[in-house]
Amino acid sequence: MAKITLDALKHSYYPNPQREEDWALKRLTLEWADGGAYALLGPSGCGKTTLLNLISGLLHPTEGRILFNDRDVTLASPEERNIAQVFQFPVIYDTMTVYDNLAFPLRNRGVAEPEVDKRVREIAHMLELDAMLKSRAAGLTADGKQKISLGRGLVRSDVNVIMFDEPLTVIDPHLKWVLRSKLKELHRRISRTMIYVTHDQTEALTFADQVVVMNNGEVVQTGTPVELFERPMHTFVGHFIGSPGMNVLTCEVKDGQASVEGYPVETVNAAEYKGDARRLELGVRPEFVTLASSGIPANIVKVADAGRFRIVEARARDRSIKLLVPEGRPIPEGEVHLAFDPRHTQVYEDGWMVGARR
Amino acid sequence: MNKTFDNRAWWLVVPVFLMVAFNALIPLMTVVNFSVQESFGDNVFFWSGVRWFEQVLNSERFHAALLRQIIFTALVLLIEVPLGLAIALAMPRKGPWVSVCLVLMALPLLIPWNVVGAMWNIFALPDIGFLGKLINSLGIHYNYTRQPLGAWFTTVLMDVWHWTSLVVLLCYAGLVSIPDAYYQAAKVDGARPWAVFRYIQLPKLKHVLTIAILLRFMDSFMIYTEVVVLTGGGPGNSTTFLSIDLVKMALGQFDLGPAAAMSIVYFLIILLASWLFYTLMMRNEAR
Per the domain annotation, does A355 fall within a domain? Predict the structure, then answer.
């Protein structure tokens, strides 16, 4: 059980990093509360796994400190940190039975056999592995093997933090759903700090209370799923979270008033703009764009059916703007006008939200 | 899908048949031919049935050579496999030393077998060889040309020097192919180095070890060149292994019938042992 503090953490895989690109992780300061469920979300190669391995102690940071409950563990081994980690691809001990695999982390730490038995059976039951406890782990399917990996991560009751590195990549979709709910349920039950790395936004948003979005080795935004959705601090978050992603349109801001294509648009934060950006953009999610009687004129070019909604792609001059239209609502032909919800329309300077601290 | 039947396709297989016939079947059949007949030159043959086989299988000379051979192979396997595995485990996984180690390891394998024998022949001579001098200077009386034990020691040492590298290279290849995630998981699970070896490295090396043991078994069971150059099978018959005995019988005494029978028995022993070993090692794979 621990609060985790990352203090000005930097990491590079090169012995003496010179350029900005040499850093796999660029200066990161974070604090994670004890017992929270966190997700690290970002595209492949953004530094998620590096960060995870730094926390688990498989890597040591080039600069900065890691604290568990205010104890400096920067140079401690995974063993000393007392953490559990589940990897992307199943890791099993081939020659052992499923039971012995699950018992391995406990036995290595000298836990008494009756306690081992109790824990193993409990975890096996939760992962529906009871029936195959006595069979050899090597004979299992990929699903089964990954369940064992998960089980080994969950079997110890005293760990400081449990980390999952895209653990459901190899799992069948229907089982994915089941296991994710189990993890969530388990988190509620044992309230241990859990960090879940993924590039799948659905996974991150359903699992975590707090999502940390990373890109290019830095944290772009930390927040609850709702915050990430409604107030993306960076256009990257807007793109990456939500389906389809946020509309990002170049705009102008004059005297605290934003305008697109010469049409004034009401926004949350245009008034805070100081006027020194190289690139000014306006971001609005498709959910908050509506067809109106006045506003930016556009032509509808494509309509895609996505169940309860239809994704409508409109074109204003040469810009594409997506919007969601609820099922059953008629979609007019030809020229339409688009209106943006002023409470959910933000201005971004050089990618970052105007007015937000960096 | 409809299968097309065209017997002309057999012509495509003919070249392979011919190849196999010329390089395996015909020589083998010649040996079989000799093993069941008596010959007196001039290509005159008389049928002799299984007489040569009976003679070989009952001869003390064959038994003695076979026993020496089994002891030699067992010694070589017992030393080379654990030693090779230990060296492979100790070799660096990355960095500039990897290639240095690999080249050093590969060197003995690149030396022609008769050169290996000649090298050790001189190296171990008690009067002018470095090794022989060194051992004698330690106060141990050592002369491999006269002492059976000394000859055995030198022969086994030579084979270990020559062939441990093969086991090292095979094991090293096996070791580097184990994904990092296994070691990371073991660290997280709190596994001690011994447990890492026992539950990760050894099981993952099972296949390469099987291959290494098979190769070393077959090669050491058929050892000829190095030993002939080193000791010539002596002193006395003390290092006369099966292949050396076979050559003595076939070319020294020109006993082609018994020699042919012995070749076939020799071949069957290797085949049987390899098959047994492989089957036992791979028994659990099917399940």
Answer: no
